[in-house]
Amino acid sequence: MRATSRRTLLGGLALAPALLQWAAAAETEVVVVGAGVAGLAAALELARRRVGFTVLEARGRIGGRARTESTSLGVPFDHGCSWLQAAQRNPFVGLRRERGLRLVREAAKRLWLDGRFAGAGEEASLRAALGRLERAIAEAGRAGRDVALASIFPARDRYERIALAITGPFEAGVEPERLSALKVWSRPGGLEYLVEGGLGAALATWGSAVPVELAATVRRIRRDVGRRAAPARGRGDRARTLHGGPKGARLGPAGGTARRTADPRPATRLSLSGSRP
Ligand SMILES: Cc1cc2nc3c(=O)[nH]c(=O)nc-3n(C[C@H](O)[C@H](O)[C@H](O)COP(=O)(O)OP(=O)(O)OC[C@H]3O[C@@H](n4cnc5c(N)ncnc54)[C@H](O)[C@@H]3O)c2cc1C
After folding, report:
1. Which of 37, 48, 127, 184 has its CA 20 to 30 A from that of 206?
2. Residue 88 pLDDT
3. What pTM does this model have?
4. Is the CB of 33 under 6 A from ligand 1?
5. How far apart are CA 68 and CA 146, in angstroms?
6. Which of 60, 49, 63 is nearest to 213 (CA)?
7. Sign of CA dihedral 184, 185, 188, 193
């Protein structure tokens, strides 16, 4: 099987629904666990290669950590990812042309402090604190130090605490005590765009043609080494798993099994258990 680049993997953005339906109805060769962006992209790629698949998703919706919701604030709000980062090489930016999405640059930020908009001096203090944090992150990153943000930047005043809160919980969904400075430093740079209407909503529309079994939690992946047998769901005589779970999609070796552990042994039997409708 030829190597698949990220760009190629997402290249099937406009894959015909009929082809997806065909691949999902064909004998299951690959079970994709999780219908987040990685799982959906994996299913698209499998369909493009005419490989039968089944996608199992624990939640009652697709998209995983990409989710837009419009009720709580009265406007579209992305609970998870919202930015199309590194726009110059982000394959999803192509959705703009395909689906007529409107990409927007971030509006100028204003700081809300003590029940009012912050003054110029306060804004300058925050910018300075963000600058200090950025320099501390760059220093750790250049040295290859995989250390928590909080350990290299013990906040000394409220502006430094706000800077940490922006970089940690706000931008990464992780507390500074658990966020790696090295990871922050190695984030892709370049242009970033928001998507009008929400990135989660756009990705849900993009993946909506992929047939997915919802509310289907995979609780166990069983491998019996050395026997060739049918997968538990009974469609086909071998199955590989593409795991689109929290660690992202991993394509298993040809004829083998991609799995949650690092076990390099080939597997010939795969059975899935859990609640499926
Ligand atoms: C707060 C926050 C902000 C972010 N901001 C950005 C951003 O601005 N830009 C950006 O590019 N990225 C951002 N990210 C990262 C981005 O959201 C993720 O990298 C991406 O959504 C991961 O996709 P995925 O398919 O690998 O995993 P997920 O989206 O986590 O999908 C995994 C899916 O697998 C399902 N699943 C898991 N286990 C099982 C099981 N046993 N059985 C069945 N189904 C299962 C889950 O329900 C889920 O739907 C952000 C993340 C967070 C949390």
Report:
1. 184
2. 86
3. 0.74
4. yes
5. 32
6. 60
7. positive
Question: Is the shortest distance between the CB of 183 and ligand 1 below 6 Å?
Answer: no
pLDDT at 188: 81
Three-point CA angle 87, 41, 82, nearest 5°: 40
Each residue of 187-221: pLDDT tens digit? 888 889 999 999 999 999 999 999 999 999 999 88
Q: Is the CB of 82 under 6 A from ligand 1?
A: yes
For position 195, what pLDDT does the model report? 93
Give the per-residue pLDDT at 117.
Answer: 95
Best of 6, 81, 84, 103 for a ligand 1 pocket test (most atoms within 8 Å of beta carbon): 81
pLDDT averages per 10-residue partition of the chain, 277 residues: 48 72 91 96 93 96 96 92 88 78 85 94 97 98 97 96 95 93 91 92 92 95 56 45 45 32 37 48
For the chain, the distance separating the N- and C-terminal CA atoms, rounded to the nearest angstrom, is: 34
d(CA 208, CA 62): 8
State which ligand 1 atom lies nearest to the alpha carbon of 79. 1
What's the CA-to-centroid distance between 272 and ligand 1, angstroms? 22
Helix (H) or strand (E) holding 120, with range, is helix 120-142
Side-chain-side CA neighbours of residue 169 (13 Å)? 6
Residues belonging to the chain: 277
Q: How far is the CA of 60 from the centre of ligand 1 (A)?
A: 15
**Partners of residue 68 on adjacent β-strands:** 78
Q: Is any ligand 1 atom within 6 A of the Cβ of residue 246?
A: yes
**So where are the chain's domains?**
6-63+207-273, 68-104+195-205, 123-187
Count the Cβ atoms, other than its own, within 10 Å of residue 50: 11
CATH number for the domain formed by residue range(s) 6-63+207-273: 3.50.50
